Every structure is written in structure tokens, then in C-alpha cells.
Amino acid sequence: MWHGHWFNDHYVYPSYATLYDERYFTFCEFAYQALYNFWGRVGDALSKTHITKLKPRDIDFARVIDAINVDPNVNSNSHFVWLKNFKDNDYNSMNDDRKQTVHYETITSKLKRDHLKAFSNRSDVEVRQNWIESRVDYFVNHFQLCLEGLREVTLFWETK
Question: Which domain of life is it from (predicted)?
Fold first, then answer.
């Protein structure tokens, strides 16, 4: 997979990033934003059907789920339980990644910086490459979770 070059008494594993890679990372960043925006809209919709003490500027998916969770009646609703579990796991993890990309450092910059720190460590280079390649399945899975989440929200409203 990765062929190093012997240089100055150690192997160096160059990065062969191309314009196609840049576009791929840009689309990954767009995907993070699209997912966040989708779940934000779900939070908006849920806040309109459940009374919460949230101020309008504080309404987002995670806060609305937490605000609804205060109601003891929803904890027995399997559709709400799905939403709460999703928020606590997949959503929070995705949102942490999104925050890094949107607020601190683009994917391209992070990968370049990480490569410069460890360009002679083959296992680090392979870990980064595996992460890059895993983004396709990661986003496909998250967009499928959007469909499943929409179904769960609808069923939650119907069983309320």
C-alpha cells in the first residue's frame, strides 16, 4: 500500500494528495454540515410539538432532546429512546468531528499537519489513510440514520 523512501537513515512516507483529495475533503466537510443542519431541523420540529423552556436561540437537536427527556412519560416511548440513544452516541460523535472541522481546522489542514508530524511512521500514515477511506461508509451510515431518525420522530409524534 504505502511505499516508503529511504532518506537520511529512516523511511519517509510521502503524501500524494491531489486536487481530487481536496474536493473529497471539502465534500466531507459539507456532509458534516448537512447532517448537523438536518438534525437541527429535527430539533426545531420537536421543539414546536413539545413544550420546553429553551430560548429560541438555544434550540438545537441535542438540547431539545435533553429538554424533552425531563418529561418522565417519554422514557417509556421506544421511539424517543431511539432518538435519545442516537443523540448520546452517533450524533454527539459526529458533532464533535463537525466542530473540529468547522470551528478549528479543515480536514485538509489537519491531515497535512498530522502527516508532517509523523511522515516517517508507516502505521500513522496507514491510520490516516484508513480514516480517509472510511469516510464514505461513515457518511452513508449517517445519512441512513437520518432516514431512520425521521421515521422515529414521526412514530414518536404518532404515539405521543
Answer: Bacteria
